[in-house]
Design brief:
Protein name: Peptidase S1 domain-containing protein
CATH architecture of the domain at 22-101 and 111-137: Beta Barrel
Domain Peptidase S1: 35-142
Structural class: mainly beta
Strand content: 25-35%
CATH class of the domain at 22-101 and 111-137: Mainly Beta
Pfam family, one: Trypsin
GO biological process, one term: proteolysis
Signal peptide: 1-17
Length: 157
């Protein structure tokens, strides 16, 4: 079963960056924005991204080159300080037009299973080159030896 998750913002640690991905034309993905990281447009007016991205730059760049300053930045209440809460929802002053509408998956009724393929989108440290990487879900427990190293890749979303 193949699934596409455009919420790379949830994989914000550099350990979880998608590398060696396939380049795509950002113009075909109006629902993806760049704010020094990758953000996903939700409902036309909100951006789901990583909270640490707001520490660097509080501007969103759209695929057509527009620079937008969010009117509200809502970082998770436990960020910073508690690992794993690196999430933020930005509110835009106006709705953005998009051809792709995203909904949050109901993982209770359609869970991601071991062996499923997921597609992760991101800018991977580039300013404007959107890429994706296809990964296979591996739910095998991993021993994390430090914040940035693990015995094998482990993907959270």
């Amino acid at each position: 079963m193949r699934r596409s998750f455009m919420l790379l913002a949830l994989l914000s640690s550099s350990t979880f960056a998608a590398v060696d991905g396939t380049s795509v034309n950002w113009l075909n993905y109006k629902d993806m924005v760049n704010n020094n990281c990758t953000g996903t447009l939700i409902g036309g007016k909100f951006i789901l991204t990583a909270a640490h991205c707001n520490d660097i730059k509080n501007t969103v760049i759209t695929q057509d080159g527009a620079w937008i300053n969010p009117t509200v930045v809502n970082d998770h209440l436990n960020y910073p300080g508690v690992e794993g809460y690196d999430l933020s929802v930005l509110t835009l002053p106006n709705r953005l037009e998009t051809t792709n509408i995203h909904y949050f998956a109901d993982l209770n009724s359609d869970p991601v299973r071991n062996g499923d393929e997921v597609r992760l989108f991101g800018f991977a440290g580039t300013q404007d080159q959107l890429s994706y990487a296809t990964m296979t879900v591996d739910t095998t427990p991993t021993v994390v030896t430090s914040r940035y190293t693990a015995e094998k890749n482990y993907w959270w979303w």
